[in-house]
């Protein structure tokens, strides 16, 4: 997962796939973030984490100095051009990528975990999701006569209502986002509350997401049907990706990644909890900096589902053209293999994204990587208008 996601964003010269020690360093750095945020003599208390972070920054510096960004996604290229306009040295640019990688590699994997947890732990929901996804499957034959079951993953967000509603409810139910906004001028809210210029407003997402006046008396429960008939939901009440100008520019990318990954799992694998009973894992060890809380360990068994008698292989593709994105399933799970907590970082190579560089010499090379195919929204972020009116739809 780490490699496939960063490949999609950073292209064929992705520092994580070029240099395996960069990935190792990343996962040495990550657990130190909470303590680093506290800022208590970090050079002593989080020495290893800081050293690991420095190694990742060096890998990114090499990436930029070798022109690796020229084959990357539009977002990376635009960021590069923007920072260069402000004469930001490439070392500083490389440091910014630490924040980008936190965004890419943290909340999404955890969201996928919870999405799968809620789907598999309720046989009725699992059955409905399989049924919905199966309606998108087509029997096809390749040029060499091989038959296979074909699924265009880009159809899921718009055609699988229950499945998509599950993801929205997963975000509502688990998101721990707290948005921080600074007040730029004296402002009266609702003619009652004066927010003074220079102050800071903290908007705790979980309080709003569990507000019974907004979501009804069952606001504290997981209800997979909640979003079924809600076409458009304002970001004042539904804020897993924040709101307004700083709203997450990666939301479409990740929505599509989670839906695609979950669909590939649900269609092909059974997941069985260790003692036969699904119990929601505790979120006691959630990281304060993450907008989705990670679960405590949860032992499950993952088995390839016995398919029908035809046993045709699956082929997962993004978009109509088979050429654009081949998402062959490289889930390397043999039957009866035990996984710890379905942690997505452990099952690598799930999404394989091909990068097609068109132009090489004028710093405008464009890569057809996953996010561009999926929505293009990741490329330049959002204007404030787009952000406030956003429809949370893939
Ligand atoms: C499930 C996955 C993700 C979640 C839940 C998430 C959530 C968030 C949230 C809550 C914010 C703050 C919004 C605010 O200030 O109101 C944010 C900002 C941001 N996210 Fe994400 N994010 C995810 C994935 C990604 C990905 C994949 C990328 C990049 C490829 C990304 C890039 C960013 C960036 C650059 C910002 C800062 C935007 C700004 O300040 O202008 N995020 N994200």
Automatic annotation (TrEMBL):
Keyword Acetylation: no
Keywords: Heme, Iron, Metal-binding
Keyword Metal-binding: yes
InterPro entries listed in its UniProt record: CYP450_monoxygenase_sec-met, Cyt_P450, Cyt_P450_E_grp-IV, Cyt_P450_sf
Cofactor: heme
GO molecular function, one term: iron ion binding
Pfam families: p450
Domain of life: Eukaryota
Residues annotated to bind heme: 248
Family to which this protein belongs: Belongs to the cytochrome P450 family.
Name assigned to this protein: Cytochrome P450
């Amino acid at each position: 997962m780490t490699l496939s996601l960063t490949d999609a964003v950073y292209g064929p010269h992705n520092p994580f796939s070029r240099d395996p020690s960069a990935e190792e360093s990343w996962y040495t750095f990550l657990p130190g973030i909470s303590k680093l945020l506290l800022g208590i003599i970090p050079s002593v208390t989080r020495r290893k984490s800081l050293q690991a972070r420095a190694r990742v920054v060096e890998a990114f510096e090499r990436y930029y100095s070798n022109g690796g960004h020229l084959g990357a996604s539009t977002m990376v290229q635009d960021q590069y051009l923007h920072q260069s306009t402000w004469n930001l040295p490439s070392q500083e640019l490389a440091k910014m990528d630490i924040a980008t990688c936190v965004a890419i590699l943290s909340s999404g994997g955890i969201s996928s975990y919870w999405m799968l947890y809620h789907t598999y732990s309720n046989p009725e929901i699992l059955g409905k999701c399989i049924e919905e996804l199966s309606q998108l499957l087509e029997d096809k034959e390749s040029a060499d006569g091989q038959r296979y079951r074909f699924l265009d993953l880009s159809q899921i967000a718009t055609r699988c209502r229950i499945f998509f509603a599950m993801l929205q409810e997963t975000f509502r139910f688990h998101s721990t986002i707290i948005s921080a906004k600074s007040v730029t001028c004296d402002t009266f809210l609702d003619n009652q509350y004066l927010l003074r210029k220079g102050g800071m407003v903290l908007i705790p997402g979980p309080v709003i997401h569990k507000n019974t006046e907004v979501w009804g008396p069952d606001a504290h429960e997981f209800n997979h049907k909640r979003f079924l008939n809600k076409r458009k939901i304002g970001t004042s009440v539904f804020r897993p990706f924040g709101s307004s100008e700083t709203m997450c520019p990666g939301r479409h990318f990740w929505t599509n990644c989670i839906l695609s990954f979950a669909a590939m799992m649900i269609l092909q694998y059974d997941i069985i909890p260790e003692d036969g009973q699904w119990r929601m894992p505790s979120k006691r060890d959630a990281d304060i900096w993450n907008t989705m809380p990670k679960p405590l360990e949860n032992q499950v068994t993952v088995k390839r589902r016995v398919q029908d008698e035809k046993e045709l292989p699956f082929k997962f593709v993004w978009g109509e053209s088979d050429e654009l994105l081949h998402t062959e399933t490289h889930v390397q799970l043999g039957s009866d293999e035990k996984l710890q907590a379905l942690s997505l970082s452990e099952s690598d190579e799930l999404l394989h994204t091909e990068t097609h560089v068109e132009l090489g010499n004028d710093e405008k090379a464009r890569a057809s990587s996953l996010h561009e195919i999926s929505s293009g929204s990741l490329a330049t972020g959002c204007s404030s208008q787009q952000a406030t009116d956003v429809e949370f739809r893939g």
